[in-house]
Amino acid sequence: MAEKGELKQENKSALQRNFLRQFRDKETREFKQISASQFMDVWNHYDSDGNGYIEDKELDGFLKELVTSVNSADVGPEVVSESALKDAKKLVLNAFDENNDGRIDIAELAQILPMEQNFLLLFRRDHPLDSSVEFMKIWREYDSDHSGFIEADELKNFLYDLLKQSERENDVSEEQLIVYADTMLQLFDRNKDGKLQLSEMAKLLPVRENFLCRPIFKRKSGGWYMGCSRLNSDDIDRVFNLYDVDHNGYIENDELHGFLKDLMELVEDDYDADDLLDCQKILLDKCDMNRDGKINKEELTMVLTSCNKNSTVEEPKV
Q1: CA-CA distance, 308 to 103, in Å (whole number)?
Q2: Which helix (H) or strand (E) is 230 found in, with range?
Q3: CA neighbours closer than 13 Å in the CB half-sphere of residue 28
Q4: Which of 60, 81, 160, 275 could form a disulfide with 271 if both were Cys (CB 3.0 to 4.6 A apart)?
Q5: What's the CATH class of domain 215-314?
Q6: Please, how many CA atoms are within 13 Å of residue 249, restricted to the half-sphere of its CB?
Q7: Closest CA to 251 of 130, 133, 138
Q8: Which helix (H) or strand (E) holds 305?
Q9: pLDDT category, 56, cuts 50, 70, 90?
Q10: What distance in Å separates the CA atoms of residue 42 and residue 116, rounded to the nearest whole number?
Q11: Helix or strand holding residue 154 (H, E)
C-alpha cells in the first residue's frame, strides 16, 4: 500500500511540474486527441486568474510546458532559455493569435491542441458572423423563453444546429451533446451563474469585425457613446450601411441591438440583455429626435459625434 501511495504522489508531482505531458503518447510523444472535458481541464489549469485569457506569465508557463512536455523524462520548464521562450512565443502568436492582442483565448487554444473534431467545430473560427446584427438574430432565436440568457437546454439546441450545419450532428450522441453543452457553459460562463449572458455568448459566437473598433473611433471612458474627432460623410455611410441590413433607411430592431452591442463592447467587457435595453433607452432619449424608436442616418451622426463637442462631420476630399 505504501508503494502505491508513493507512486501516486510521484505521478501527481510530475503532473504539477508539466500538466501537458499526460496528453502525449508515451511512445510517439505526439499529442493524443483531447476530449471536451480534457480541454476544459487544460484551459482552467493555464488560465489561472480566470480572466478568459492565457497571457503574460500564464502564457510563458504554457509555452515552456508545451515545449518540455515532448520529453518523456521529467524535464522541468526551467530548461527553456529566455531566447527559446521568446522564439516560441513569437511562433505561436503569429500562427494562432488571430486578433493580435498578444494573448491566447479559448478558441485560439482549441486551434493549438489536437481537439476532438466535432467539439472543435463548435468554435467557429473559420466562419465568424458577418456582423453583430446577425449575432442578435441568432441570440433572439435561441433565447426561446426571452429570459435574456442562453440557458443549458437552449445552448444544447444551438450547438446541435451548429453541428448540423457541418453535417456532423449524426456523429454526436445525445450524451456527447450534453457534455459539449456543459463544457462550453463552463468555459464561457465567466460569472458562473449557470447560463450565458450577451457578453459571454459573444465570446462563443464571434463576429468578423466590430467596425466601431477601427482607429477612427475614439473611446470615451465612463459613457456608452463613442465620439470621433474627424468623421466624414463616407465614414457615416459605411457605419449606417453596416447596420441597416435591410436598406430601409433605418437602424431598428435587431439592427439597433447589434449596433448597441458593438457600442457596449467598446466600454464594457461584461454586459447582459438588461444593459443593452438600458443603453437603448439612453440612446433613443438623446438621439431619436422624431421618437419613432429607430435611428436614421441623421440621428446616427448625432450618436457618433455626441461625445465630442468639437466633433465635426467633414465632407470627403475629392
Answers
A1: 32
A2: strand 230-232
A3: 6
A4: 275
A5: mainly alpha
A6: 2
A7: 133
A8: helix 297-305
A9: very high
A10: 14
A11: helix 152-165
Report whether pLDDT(6) > 70.
no
Q: How far is CA 312 from CA 203, 217, 280, in A?
A: 34, 13, 24
What are 115's strand-pairing partners? 34
Q: Which three cell numbers stand for residue 164?
A: 448540423
Answer whether residue 111 shows pLDDT above 80: yes
> How far is Cα 133 from Cα 314, in angstroms, rounded to an integer?
27
30: its cell numbers: 505526439
Burial level of 128, CB count in 10 A (0-12/13-18/19+)?
Answer: middle
Measured between its terminal Cα atoms, the distance across the chain in Å is 85
State the residue for C-alpha cell 510530475.
14
Q: Which residue has the cell 451622426?
A: 301
Candidate CATH numbers 1.10.3720.10, 3.20.10.10, 3.40.50.2300, 1.10.238.10; the one for domain 132-204: 1.10.238.10
